[in-house]
Design goal:
heterodimer; A: mainly alpha; ABC transporter involved in vitamin B12 uptake, BtuC; globular
Chain lengths: ~325, ~325
Amino acid sequence: MSDRLTTPAELDQPIAPAWSTRALLDRFGMLLILPLLLAAGGIVSPAFISADNLSNLLLQFAPLAIVAMGQALVMIVRGLDLSVASMMATAAVIATGFSGSDRDVATIFAVALAVAVMIGLLNGFLVTKRQVSPFLATLATMILLQGFRFAYTQGAPSGNVPPLLRVFGAGKFHGIPYNVLVLVALAIILAIVLHRSTFGRRIFIVGGNPVTGRLFGIQSDLIIIACYLISACLAAVGGLILSGYVGLVDNWVGQGYELDSIVACVVGQVSLQGGRGSILGALTGAAIIVIIANEVLLLGVPIQVQLIIKGAVIVIAAALYARKDN
Amino acid sequence: MTGAANLRIEMPWLLRNNAGLAGVLVLIALVCLVGAAASDRFLSFNNFLNVFEQTTDLALVSIGQTLTILAGGIDLSVGSLISLTSCLTSGLINNNPDRVVVVVIAVLVLGTAVGCVNASLVVALRVHPLIVTLGMGAVLQGVTLLYALGPVGRVPRGFNFLAYGRVYGLPLGATLAVLLCILIALLLRYLPLGRQVYALGDDANSARLVGLRRTRILMLVYGTSGFCCAATGLYLAARFGVGQPYTGVNYTLASITPVVLGGTLLSGGKGGVVGTLFGAFLIALLNNLLNFMDVSKHYQLVAQAVIIILAVSVYVERRRTM
């Protein structure tokens, strides 16, 4: 399909004028929640807005944000990726599968990304060519990865994370964690791809209405597969970074990230019905989750209540946006 | 396709309604064939009773899950609800035989009530059931941990009869699960509300246009799912002798596998509980076979994933994402 076939509709501007106050609020309004949350946290417990804590907050924010961006892409094309957490853990196990010295870092990245590409392709293939529901397809690959991981480690993983990876996962450059730098680079690339490129526009068209996409001559299957591919690769990178943060290997690195990343996207106004969403939204959602979790922790609220708060936040956020979607 | 059409005419209603059921039966037959080749004890009656007994928990929870999926939804709060009910069972009974009846009834009522709350939230907030039940799952897990951070209470000696007891040679828990399944299958087929579950799952818009009451249908399916979770919680408390706050964690996603293997479409409107029962049996049988073949538990997961992928790629008939 050559670019000549790009139709006017594809190039059309959004319905609202791009720079009206309303449109700006619509697009960036949820960012305003962040300073409010930070201020509230600071009032309740002054330790919250200390430079140290903010820097730690960023450290925890990066892995979730990286995974959430991939999840957002998949959700925009009407999918879901439940295999991200399993992919993260697999990448973490791969990180310790070599000698544990710095010269293997490149190999680790290559192997982890190769596995991610295979998983992404499998997810995309099942969803598009075999028409399996995304929930189920990614659930199956999640179990598949888990099985291989356990078979490989015999349930008791061992080995060391290379020091360089630890620097990436937990190190800071003048208070700014390296993993945030990685995140920013990835976020800029993805934002340009999603919001400023032909490929990105096609993602929204396929997600908004697959039939329209087909009528425009867009190969929607390829677009969808690409989204699953990107999500799996981001999960692998997130897993490697998280393994550097955790420092020791464990079969369950990243556990809970599949749901947290979905929640981050929903909170960040990425529509579960597909066709709506943004990289900024995914980032904001991830930030909100990390901030709330951290605040709750500093308040000394027990983990049980944290879970209850989290559950309530998920449902309330989704309910607030539900009207918009309809 | 013509083959399938011919089958439809000849098969009894159970199969006619449910092409996936034929698929799961073929898979069970295949596993049996491999099993017969692997060990002469595999096909023994006793082994089958064992597998049947091991199917109980998965069968119970996925029967409820089938209903929510048939209606076009999903219930991701099952794991936490199972943990909560199993903790409450052993914690409240606390080794006092006099309380058994009251607590069992209370737990079943509680499970059903939680399901109804799920349904109400789906209707009132107009949020996808995936999100509602996910949130509910987190809340319930929190409540469970508030009640107990570790194993709590004890069940009296006789209570484990539910899990290990045999009545006329048949395992009690599994038999009850089968009876529940048959009851629900009949209700789905002969009760108007039961048939409306299929209508709603098949096409929610048309269902609304012909005046079906969505609230009522959702109350039925999520209530039943909650009831089934409570029953699973009771069973697990009986099996382990104690309730644990994380005992149900794995059931959330595991409960979906038998449903899909049994030929129920994840997009709703097609399938049934009988297929789910066989799906749960297939998983237990597969694990049993792999045990016989000395395959490590880790590869059992791989095998399960491969079976899911094979099954769903073969069954799927139409495109509709959830």
